[in-house]
Design brief:
481 residues, six-stranded mixed beta sheet, 17 helices, 38% helix, elongated, disordered C terminus
Length: 481
Amino acid sequence: MTDAWPPTRWTPPLSPDFPNVWDSWLGRIIRVVWKVAFGFTLDPWQEDLIRHVLEVFPKGHPRAGQLRFRQVVISLARQNGKTELAAVLGLYGLLRRANQLVIGIASSVEQSRLVYQRTMQAIAANPSLKKKFQRLTDTRGIKSHTGGQYELKASKSAALQGLPVDVGVVDELHLLKLALWSALVAGTGGRPNGIVVGITTAGDENSELLLHLYELGEKATASDPEKNRFGFYVWEAPESRMPDDDEELLEFLKAANPALASGRLDAENVITDVRSMPPVDAIRYRLNRFVTSISTFMPLTIWGKAPRPAEQPFPRAPELPLVFTIDRSPDWGYATVSATVRDGDTTHTELVASIVKPSLDQLRDIALALWEHSPALYVVDGYSLKELGAELKKYGLPVRVMSQGDVIAACAMFYAKVVQHKLRHGSDPLLTVQLPGSERKTVGVGFRIIPKDGSQIDAVMATVLGVYAAETAQSGAPQIA
């Protein structure tokens, strides 16, 4: 046992020396494969977890040698090695016997690719495994020469109805539909060793599947162990709040982050990172506690600590690229233009203009008039002002049209820079009015800003997108989209 074991809530084994697949054969293979492929082995807590997940019924039991669990939920904070666990469990499914169908479902195409790459790296680095498997480039999957197949799918595209699944491994259950999990479980049918494992972080009130599985997990841990075939392993902080004291925060983080409790992650770095996150994100993703999907974006108490000193002018110099950002309200009632400059580690922003009932032509003319200030870039939201972006490009102006992904990344970056004291604003009254009407709404594994009760937030969005553009333009991101 390690300092990271046991989890906060978990399903105890049938006996202290319970038999399991890891100790009987899988551990020997994985330790060698991971050491050769990656130069390290799994953390002791990860081995402990897989040992428990793959518990088998003991000799003398009517199901002796079969897996105890048919469904397993593993919940822990981000950055604790979920990709490693998914890759190991997928390989287990392929290695245990011939003609196995293993389905891996990831929260996104990108995450699916990460699991696939990790698994293929492990196989490619080991000559004996390399002979047994080949990649399926058309499905981003893996096929064994004994008839087994490991298919990795993004959750939105997964079609599982009727598939005879032997092992299912699911990433980020809070994003998965209940029907998809049910189809995986149903696919295991009457197979004596069919198993579906979900690995996730906490969710919100809209996480229907995860809430359902947490409820099943709580019931399972209280039921007769002999009849319980639901494994439940949750690392989480004792409370859903952000402690002000760093020592208390560290204890909260250790409870939710076994990689930190085991000593693999640096405590000081983790605390610094968590302090720069919006509290709701820190509570959900690093303390692994459920939150509400909509909450205040940025309290004025935080914003009020970031003004530029009255005696310090907005920085202007040829070597400091100037970014103008234009955003409007959904009803075209208002529009705002912001100016942003990054000077070293500090980003400076201020509002340039606020327009009532703007037209597309009027916004175009304002942008053209601002050209005399030699901006490096104009920025617009691709959803609300795509037409303006296209119009400015006709005049040969450098334009970046922000995508939904850009907006989500911008919201997180903006908050972090304010909290880290790396942003200075001009104390514009309009922002002071609009910020309280700006809420954050969870979108996938990120969030974006939305208006509260019909509030106007064009000034907030112009500022947020401008800061992001100034940051990413200087880090080599493309400036014209």
